[in-house]
Specification:
355 residues; alpha+beta; seven-stranded antiparallel β-sheet; 8 helices
Length: 355
């Protein structure tokens, strides 16, 4: 016998479709070519304690031993068992896409909270859980399943009502570079303009109009200062102002914006970041945080970002904008290096970016 992380569908044990428990669990349905290794890496990206409790195994060539599924533990309460093979007929009986080649059986606690709030439902979760949204462990697992299905062009079968979700892999196109290299605004602008020539710095702030007026009952009591105390206070304020005026200007964050006309806007937001994707935490160069270059797309109608099925016009604009996003990220990454992450905190290889 040998450990199998990337075996072909014909080498996998069959999913026990007749087991009633299978239909009550979440199922992660994967297309052909996706390996158990890929699922493990995405699990580690969100659940740092992920480990194979039982590795999956296949029979060596010529062996009469049967393959067996592995058990991938995400946390104390959640496991993925698989991969199992699944034929087209059984996939159809579960409502899964005909492209399904393998499946992981997901066991996690059932923890529900309040009914979903009105509003956008990009991933269809409000439609699946109308009586109470997942919370705590179940919420973390469901959100990871959605992110994983989006990344792997896979599907999820939810146990409650057997609803199948196929998250749009193109729903989010924003990317972030995490690095230790800081570019001054003019340097970053020059880099970005290689991909989007019409980019410009967005450093203009708002004029300060003084402190907000407070009602009398909220105003603090006023102490009357003597002449000596007043003179000392003015001297300290003058010294502080002189030190601030004589020091060089320091920018700790800035933005660059590019008008994409009918396709909306593209922005790059640059600044310090302490909250890093789990997979980047604890590295020598992220010990004290990192510099984040967040490349974001703002469509003509921002509400469409939260629709499970946005309009054709939105999808056309997005297909053009993604090339700009990828072009900017590749240009910036060439200048600052580091790691690229998508909106689900999964790492992205710069070589996989088209545009």
């Amino acid at each position: 016998m040998e450990t199998a992380r990337g075996s072909a569908p014909g080498e996998l044990p069959a999913l026990p479709v007749g087991d009633p428990g299978i239909r009550r669990h979440y199922l992660l349905a994967l297309p052909d070519g996706v390996t158990a290794d890929e699922v493990e890496v995405l699990a580690l990206s969100r659940f740092r304690g992920t480990a194979w409790q039982v590795p999956p195994r296949i029979a060596a060539p010529g062996s009469t031993a049967r393959p067996s599924p592995g058990v991938l533990r995400l946390s104390r309460h959640t496991t993925l068992t698989g991969p199992y093979g699944l034929g087209p007929r059984d996939a159809a009986s579960l409502g899964l896409p005909s492209s399904t080649a393998s499946v992981f059986d997901v066991t996690t606690p059932r923890e529900r909270g309040e009914r979903p709030y009105p509003g956008g439902d990009r991933d269809g979760l409000k439609r699946v859980f109308p009586d109470g949204m997942p919370v705590r462990e179940e919420e973390r697992v469901v959100l990871w399943l959605v992110s994983t299905a989006r990344r792997l062009r896979a599907a999820i079968r939810t146990g409650d009502a057997g609803v199948v979700l196929t998250p749009d892999p193109d729903a989010t196109i924003d990317l972030t570079i995490f690095t230790s290299v800081w570019l001054e605004p003019e340097q970053a602008l020059a880099v970005m303009q290689r991909a989007v020539p019409r980019a410009r710095l967005a450093l203009d702030g708002l004029d300060w109009e003084g402190p907000m007026a407070l009602p009398d009952e909220l105003r603090p009591p006023v102490d009357v200062l003597g002449d000596e105390a007043r003179a000392r206070l003015h001297a300290e304020a003058d010294a502080y102002d002189m030190a601030a005026l004589s020091a060089p200007d320091q920018v700790d964050g800035y933005a660059i914006v590019a008008d994409l006309t009918v396709d909306g806007f593209l922005t790059v937001e640059v600044g310090d970041e302490d909250t890093l994707p789990p997979i980047l935490q604890g590295l020598p160069w992220t010990e004290h945080g990192a510099i984040a270059y967040r490349v974001r797309w703002a469509p003509p109608d921002p509400d469409e970002l939260e629709l499970e099925k946005p309009s054709h016009a939105h999808r056309i604009a997005r297909s053009r904008a993604v090339r700009r996003v990828n072009g900017v990220v590749k240009a910036l990454h060439g200048a600052v290096g580091g790691e690229i992450a998508d909106t689900d905190d999964f790492l992205v290889d710069v070589g996989d970016l088209e545009g």
